[in-house]
Structures are given as C-alpha cells and as structure tokens.
Amino acid sequence: xxxxxxxxxxxxxxxxxxxxxxxxxxxxxxxxxxxxxxxxxxxxxxxxxxxxxxxxxxxxxxxxxxxxxxxxxxxxxxxxxxxxxxxxxxxxxxxxxxxxxxxxxxxxxxxxxxxxxxxxx
Length: 121
Description:
- By secondary structure, this protein is α+β, with helices and mostly antiparallel strands.
- The protein is built from 5 helices and 5 strands; from the N terminus they run ααββαβααββ.
- The strands form 2 sheets. Strands 3-5-4 form a 3-stranded antiparallel beta sheet. The chain has a two-stranded antiparallel ribbon with strand order 1-2.
C-alpha cells in the first residue's frame, strides 16, 4: 500500500527499480549477489559486507589514480584541475578510493583543508 502511494506521488520511478538499483550497487562494490529470503508473508534481503571480487573502477577513478601516481602527493584542487572536474566531485571520488584502500589521506585531521592524497602502499 505504501509503495502504491509513493508511486502515485511520483516518489519512485517504477515498480522494481529499487531491487535493480541494489543489484547494481552490490555488483559495483564487489559484493556478493543479494538473495531474497521468504519468511512467511514477509521477505528479507541480506546485504553482505565481505567482498567477493574487486570493486569496479570507472575511467574517472582510473584517471584520478593515474594523476596521483604520476604527480605524487596532491591536494583535491590540483587533482580536480588536472582532470577538469569540480572539487566536490573529486573529493567524493577520493573518499571512495580511500575507503577502498587505494589512496591515503595525509593531513592534520578530517577537516584539514590542506590535506593531500597519495597512493596507498
């Protein structure tokens, strides 16, 4: 019933798009395929945290890694300018690469505006 209301209010794209989005997100993150577990009249969708393969990288991620590798330790602005990206988009991608263990952040704290990024060893 709630799904129908969201659909009528145009808050969801179409029926089933959420499961497709979950599948895509899990696949890109290198997580195992999700499985639907039926429990009586309900269902459960466990999402695992253990990776079964390496997370996918797109061309922009590869360009960022290449820029950091070729030019050494750099800040967000320098990387963004070299790739013609916005600072925000670059920072988002750097944080994702950091969470995957591909780059390390060098700075005095999480809010250090002069922090730099280097390839993880």
